[in-house]
Amino acid sequence: MDIHRRSSCRLLAGVLVAGSLTAGCAHAASRGGAQPAPAAPAAVQLAPVFDMAPLPVTTGQLAQYILTPAGQVSGMLLADGTQVFFSHDLGEELPAIARPGEQVTVNGLKGISQPIVRAYAVNGPRGRRIADVHPPVSATAPVDSPSIGPDVPVDGTILAPLYDMQGKVQGVIMRDHSVVYVGEKNAARLGAWLRPGATLHAIGTGVTGDHGTAINAREIGPDVNQAIHIEPTDAPPPGAFPGSAGYDVIPGGSSGE
């Protein structure tokens, strides 16, 4: 009888120990699975190096974005005709803080004789602000243009000349908000066709979408019947003529400079 009782007690003790071990393992696994994954480190927000407050302030209603023929936002046109230009980084961020029809405040250098502003900081209508972290040394920026792509036609009435950040005319802004680039030399040569209020037909590679239309014109004229061919602003320089010594030389190749 004692032997039977001792065996039963040992069996019961073994079951209890096994159950305790199983529960302990399950509890440890449960605790391990419930632990949250470590949070990703927050992105470091760089503060501007320069104080923008002393810069002249321009306030107005955003009428439209100014696009490059590649679809990048390079500036904005205000309702009073002021053209605001800024760096590539600010251009990427602008649509997130301000849309056409909204008020913006700009800290930037104003043109002396042209209605242009080189912006270094922009405040949107909902309290958001974007600013250059490192203002570029040079204010000049080449037109970023696709060398190939679908032709985009533009027809309508010219609203204003399109300036660059040096105040030179490089194309036109149309009343339908399309932007037509022709380059500084073509703009000087075709000035009579590029007056505000004149009708214009142009065709070239570019983009058309939610942010607007912009092309690098290849053909331009008062209408389609008077259109002439022009060299696009991104056209490569002319090479050597066929049969000449340099005709087969590839610039930058092993046989040429």
Care to describe what's here?
Helix content is 19%, strand content 33%. By secondary structure, the protein is an alpha+beta fold. β11 and β12 form a beta hairpin. It contains 3 helices and 12 strands. It has a 5-stranded mixed barrel. Mean pLDDT is 80; it is low at 25-30 and 138-143.
Jot down its keywords.
five-stranded mixed beta barrel; 257 residues; alpha+beta; five-stranded mixed β-barrel; 3 helices
What secondary-structure arrangement, pairings included, does this model have?
Layout: H1 2-34, E1 57-67, E2 73-78, E3 83-85, H2 88-97, E4 103-110, E5 116-123, E6 129-131, E7 151-163, E8 169-174, E9 179-181, H3 184-189, E10 199-209, E11 212-221, E12 228-229
Parallel strand pairs: 3-5, 9-11
Antiparallel strand pairs: 1-2, 1-4, 2-3, 4-5, 5-6, 7-8, 7-10, 8-9, 10-11, 11-12
Number of helices: 3
Q: Largest beta sheet, briefly? A: 5 strands, mixed, barrel
Distance between the termini: 108 Å
Any idea what the radius of gyration is? 32 Å
Strand content: 25-35%
Q: In terms of per-residue confidence, which ranges show pLDDT below 50 for 5 or more consecutive residues?
A: 25-30, 138-143
Strand order of the largest sheet: 1-2-3-5-4
DSSP summary, beta strand count: 12
Overall shape: it is globular
Mean pLDDT: 80
Brief description of this entry?
The protein is α+β, with helices and mostly antiparallel strands and 257 residues long. Helices cover 19% and strands 33% of the residues. The protein is globular, with a radius of gyration of 32 Å.
